[in-house]
Amino acid sequence: MTAPLFNGREPFFLAADKVQVKYEMLRAHVVDGLTATSVAEQHGYSRAAFYLILDAFEEAGMHGLLDERRGRRGPVKLTPEVLQFLSSADPTLSGARLAAQIEERFGLSLHRRTVERARR
């Protein structure tokens, strides 16, 4: 990163703070009038990434600058009905047996470990 604010002389500007780097990159473009290509390069991003960051900021404000977890946010097949069934099931039943019962009752094929984790 070659942006002047993040050269280490100012303790407030931390190159490790990705949100601050992204914000200052956008500010340099909008306020200082620098090109998207130059500010992206100075702040360690590609031009394409600059536009993704700009869109995220325009859509969600500062929250849009946060890095979010990628991928799913939990088991897809574990519906509230299945979880209710598991909570009322006999605690002595194995995960494999419960998975078989879930398949019979709900038509869902779950691995025994998925069932065991959901019961915790």
TrEMBL record:
<dbReference type="InterPro" id="IPR009057">
    <property type="entry name" value="Homeodomain-like_sf"/>
</dbReference>
<protein>
    <submittedName>
        <fullName>Uncharacterized protein</fullName>
    </submittedName>
</protein>
<dbReference type="Pfam" id="PF13551">
    <property type="entry name" value="HTH_29"/>
</dbReference>
